[in-house]
Amino acid sequence: MKLLGFLLLVAGWLIVLSALVLLASGGLRVAFVLAGAGVEILGLVMVVRAHMGGERP
Amino acid sequence: MMPPRATPMSEAATGLCMLFILLVPLAATGLALINTGLGRSRSAAYAMFSSLCAMSVAALAFFVCGFAWQGFPGGAAHILTVGGKPWSWVGSGAFFLRHVTLDGSPPSLVALLGIVSVGLAALIPLSAGADRWKLGPICTSTALLAGWTYPLFAHWVWGGWLAQLGTNYGLGQGFLDTGGASTVQVVGGLTALAITWILGPRRGKYTSEGMPSAIPGHNAVFVLFGCMLSLLGWWGLNAAGAVLYQGAEPGMAVLVAINTFFCAVAGALTAAVVTQARFGKPDASLTANGWVGGLAASSAACLFVRPAAAVAIGLAAGILVVFSVEWLELRLSVDDPGGAVSAHAVGGMWGLLSAGFLAHVPGTTDSQQWLAQLVGVATLVGFVLPLTYGLNWLLDRFRPHRVPREGEREGMDMHELGAGAYPELVTHGEEFSGR
Hints:
The structure holds 2 protein chains of 2 kinds.
Chain A: H1 2-22, H2 27-52
Chain B: H1 11-38, H2 44-70, E1 77-82, E2 85-91, H3 106-128, H4 135-157, H5 165-169, H6 181-199, H7 220-246, H8 253-279, H9 284-301, H10 307-331, H11 340-358, H12 369-398, H13 405-410, H14 412-417
Antiparallel strand pairs in B: 1-2
Helix pairs in contact in B: 1-2, 1-3, 1-7, 2-3, 2-4, 3-4, 3-6, 3-7, 4-6, 4-12, 6-9, 6-11, 6-12, 7-8, 7-9, 8-9, 8-10, 9-10, 9-11, 10-11, 11-12
């Protein structure tokens, strides 16, 4: 789950970059940047949850 | 956007800028005191000692290769053409500062500012790893931060593709960051988060059911004095950044200083009021975190907002930091003794996002500035966090970060240094009794 979370973080960032490069200015670009940020939030939630389940010293 | 400094400045401007930069180590001194005061008494000497080591390693790593990769506005860089637009990805200068004439020129001042700023960034993770992070891994992790992670992102922000978002894609003035809210504060804060995850919580911090127990800092005077010292350093950091990275005239340092101060006081007062309302009395350590959170937030837009907006940014930063500290500790099991993740990462991100709505560069339109700021924050979370976590995770595989159990019990002073900060005090370990 931890690895998947980090992969989602990177994937979200790549969506943001792709939106900048591939989409002309306008609502579609904004929507895809927001979607990329949403994917990052999902990845962050997964990474956080993965670390909450760790063994306590 | 005002052009960054690539042309020579007058002697007076150079002298003022030099003065601003020489103030920056006071921010590091303040943070070191805060880190020490918020840790245990049996790790106090080690906290200051490791701060000194981290600053030294950071300065050397930045000298060896960091500045070559960060570069300076108008300097040599590797540029990719993506979709017909130039994307400046990384500086291509020579190692060991060989491509810079150290004569007071803007590139030499940028190099000096980088050397002191990266030391400040290196102290932020120390706060999160207090009482359990070994010295060797601290130095190695700091070298990675100062030699690669910080310079790469600093290049993107100050001259690289994030700064070019305005000219390439029409996103406002490009990513705005006057004094290092992203490069110093958020990069340091996210590294702190990675370190807390890799180290795990201090022994005795959480019960087997996951309930946190309070481990209060040992010296509130250190913490509050550190806050006051750090203000001086932040004045220097933000003013020097405004002149060197944003092309402001040195006289604009007045606006920068007022905004920086108002962000800090608003953050601290808000934290004091919120903790008074919730707990019956104001909490000194959370108020200190509110102060630092306000300072971190101020670094983004201090050149581009009016003082009233700076107060609003500081107020929101104070609230965010207080609730973030509680959320991280109680709900997410993140043991961050100094509140570094909240004050620097959360405060810094808030400052960056608020700049998208509140900043205004005179004589320009600000269309979609918020989107440029969002892209910058998305890059921090989606690229810098995995990068810094991955580097420190790999390092932990080869050389474990965490001190052995007995080291944590006897305290980092005795275990790592062989002598305590307060030899007249008996080391106690009541939180380990019965375990």
